[in-house]
């Protein structure tokens, strides 16, 4: 968040806290509102005059000043005896060449909100906020160089409800960091260097509802210390160092939490029991991680979830049990993954789903009946997927035709193959074009795709493996007396530490009806990313 954005956040907070001199309805014209504000400034409220310091009032009861070391003394002198017609609710000071906030810096001044930034402030006097003429309710010290929470100074502000310490150099949150601030409802610690949180750091904040911790250096060991926040509703842990499995011990029990972001971390899987004690979550953001495994019933504990963002991960497939229990989910984002097909396994559990984002996957097939239970779907986006527009997409083409009045996938479902239909919109193609068995088409086996069963374990096994540094050759044996199959992807995992990481997902095409021996399958393809001494697992 920029300095201006941080200041505006505090401005809005102060206006909200103080009953709001600035109120705006959804249908109000912004230009009309500007006239109303100007009228208030000219008729009901007058911007105070501050000599020798550059100050301006762009909102009623809000004063912004820019200056140097003498700014606080000069501003305090000007504001100390203001009457109600020119009183200030929020003071925003940007000062230069100031490394410390002095004692009694605004002695006798009545404020509801204060924002101070310089880019240089490293310390705050224990008595910095002594002598204020009224209890301060919102304080912002963003964009400075604070290395520790100014606990003693904050202890003088027992009525403080909102605190912004973002964009500083904080590295540790101690047990007593907020001991004197029991009434906080909003706390922004984002964009610091926090790597350790003491086990009882937040137990003295019984009313805290919003906690911003994004862009720090937190690991799972520290996030488990976010205990005691019984009132917390919104938690942002994005862009930290959370790695490995998202499991039962990753997060503490936060019974009132509704919104949580774990985006831009290094999580690789969602395990069963991951959200135990978080039963009230309605929005979960997990984009930009390394997730390739969604364990069956991994979301059992959060049946209230309505928004789930899993974009920019490494997900190859989603089983019907992976998203089981999410009957209230309305929005699902799986864009920028490695999904190969859209099947009923994904849609069936989602009884209330309305929006599905599947852009930039490897989807070539939409299975028969995949969307039959999606009665509430208003939008599916499928841009940048290699759709194979043959007879296997007849069902999907029909579904698009029947849902043309909604914001369905019509303008994003673009054919990649066969070459004769490349870049064509599926919804614009006549049914006669969706055929199998042509020269540039690889036909699927007979019968609906949805009825096919995958063959794994003893039914299909790797017979031979060769790697010459640039290409791999894999020989598979299909051990089944009678079998008809085709394949479309080879997924390669690399063993890293004690878990597997998705390395690549390569498109392949095979059809048992076109092989001399359906029980023997050989694939050869480029693999420059493989290393001779590393361990890999190949999944066909």
From TrEMBL:
Residues 385-437 form the LRRCT domain. Residues 1-20 form the signal peptide. Coiled coil: none annotated. SMART domains: LRR_SD22, LRR_TYP, LRRCT. Gene3D superfamilies: Ribonuclease Inhibitor. The keyword Signal applies. Keywords: Leucine-rich repeat, Repeat, Signal. InterPro entries: Cys-rich_flank_reg_C (IPR000483), Leu-rich_rpt (IPR001611), Leu-rich_rpt_typical-subtyp (IPR003591), LRR_dom_sf (IPR032675). One of its GO terms (cellular component) is cell periphery. This is Protein slit.
